[in-house]
Amino acid sequence: MESSVTKTARRKSPALAVFDFLASLKLATVLLLLLFVLTWLATLEQTVNGLRPMMLKYFNWKELFFFPEIGRPFNNTGEEQKVTVFFPMISGFWLCALFTLNLTLGGLVRIRKTARVVPVIVSHFSIVFLMVAAGVTHFMEERGALMVYEGETSNVAQDYHEQVIEVSEFANGAVSKVHLIEGKPLTSLKPDETRIFKMANLPFDLKVSNFIENAQPMPAMMQPPTQGQEVVDRFWLRDSGPMKETELHQAGCFVEVLSKEGQPVGEKIILASRSNYPATVSYEGRPYLINLRKKLWVLPFAVQLDEFRVERDPGTNRPATFESDVTRLDGGTREEVHIKMNEPMRREGYTFFQTNWGPQDEENPDRYYSVLEVVKNPADHWPLASLIVVMAGLCWQFGASLFRFMSKSKKEATS
Length: 415
Fold this sequence. Notes:
Layout: H1 4-10, H2 14-22, H3 25-49, H4 51-58, E1 65-66, E2 69-71, E3 83-84, E4 89-90, H5 92-109, H6 118-140, E5 142-149, E6 153-171, E7 174-181, H7 184-187, E8 194-197, E9 205-212, E10 215-219, E11 235-239, E12 252-258, E13 269-272, E14 279-283, E15 286-312, E16 319-330, E17 333-340, E18 345-347, E19 350-358, E20 369-376, H8 382-414
């Protein structure tokens, strides 16, 4: 005779079976093992390709699988070669998303709600909150750099990665208005793609082509194109390839001015982030400047560098520590702040880390400059709050278990 448990199992609906699978401990174990392997492979690849390329590859939400690369050893000819692991790994983004769902269903929804498991529920909730914070950071965090010399003030940070095309209007001999082409429509362009950008507030449009993420303008007379690249204004763009420090990338592209009817006006021009000067064009008798550069942020306050200090290891030119004394200027408010490695300044949703300095080729320069990494992350403090909650939950759980154990031992000793 079949037991009631067996009959219930046979009557289980497909939806309930899926729920049980997603909330199961077996799935959580498999996901943790996969995340361990992914972390190990990501660490190996980061040393070769850099942090950002690794993050974009391993945590790409647009792809389900990818093939890791574990190194670039030299072959017999002395050239670097990729070593690809021909075993597909699930994207870390989707592994984390599935693990978050597993924790939510198994640790929050399905768990029996009794007083004894409240600490367990609190701990599971804090881990889910930590995963959500990682997702918010992945999609919304912005990173850039603010460089300021001693005695000077700046309220502008430059984005590490996003490139923009800037079109400036003139009035009375000065820049009166600036129009930007920014975001994925620009940076997602491939070198063989062309895209027309409709400029709503300008009398012309722009046609962008041959966008290269890291390009070096080369004079065609001195170094002719090696693979038939297009020459514009006696220069061509050499693709320098990706770098480990992707914040050092300097883009390049070709631009054509089009009338609103789509007809080319003037010659094609070349733009490069490495150039110190913008291109000048004239349309209907009015001058315009067109420039390609990293995106700039205007901060809600200014930072004045009062003094920069660097200490070097004895007998070497290697810096042991470096730090900045700054004054935060916000309207009529002044606040003196000390920033050094591992001790950032946090204000109004921005975090300022001491990341670099210069000039580094002079032992005692007349004036230093400090480079502060600026991070804008709405989930900046979420991981800290999550860790505090999970620690409180674990302490509660272990403390309650210890109290029950001691009470039980006392009763047994009394009896």
